[in-house]
Description:
By secondary structure, the chain is an alpha+beta fold. 30% of the residues lie in helices and 29% in strands. The chain contains four helices and eight strands, in the order ββααββββββαα. It has helices at 32-49, 55-70, 146-154, 161-169, and strands spanning 2-6, 17-27, 74-84, 89-95, 101-104, 109-112, 130-134, 140-142. The chain starts with a strand and ends with a helix. Mean pLDDT is 81; it is low at 1-6 and 8-16.
Amino acid sequence: MKKQFFGxxxxxxxxxxxxxxxDNLFKIGVSSALYITAIKYIFKNLVQKENITEPSKFLxxxxxxxxxxxEGNIFVTTIFGIIDKEKSxxxxxxxxxxxxxxxxxxxxxxxxxxxxxxxxxxVSEASFETKEESFNKGDILFFYLDGIYEFLMEKxxxxxxxxxxxxxxxx
Length: 171
C-alpha cells in the first residue's frame, strides 16, 4: 500500500481555493511506481486539461481512467476536495477509505464527514456524490489512514475505532 497526497503543484491554486486529492494505492502483481506515475498524470490531466474540479464528476472520470489502465488489478481509495477559503467550505467527494474528520476546537466536538462512493477502480462504472462542509475559524480538517487505529488496536491501546475518535477529540 502506497500513500500519496496530490497537492496542486501548479495545477490550480489561488487565494480563494485549493484543490487536492489523497489516495491509497492497492496493487496486485504490478509495480506500484508505474501506477503512481499514471495516477499523477491522470489527476493533472483531469484538472488542468479537462478542467474537471467538481468532486463527483472528477471521481467518476478518475475511476473510469484507473479502471481502464489497471484492468481490475488495482484500486485506489481517494478523497478529492476543494477548500474554498472565501466561503469557509470544504467541497469533497469520497472514493472509499477513511472519512475525514472536522474538529471544532472551541466545542471539542468531532464530526466524521461521510460520503457515498466505493474505492476508485473496483468497477468501471461507479457513481460518487459531492458534499460540502462549512468551517469556522480555528476548526481543523483531519485526514488519517485506518492503519493508525488498527495499529493502536493491535497494541491494545484501544479496542474499537470510537476510542480512536475520542483520542483525536482530546488532542
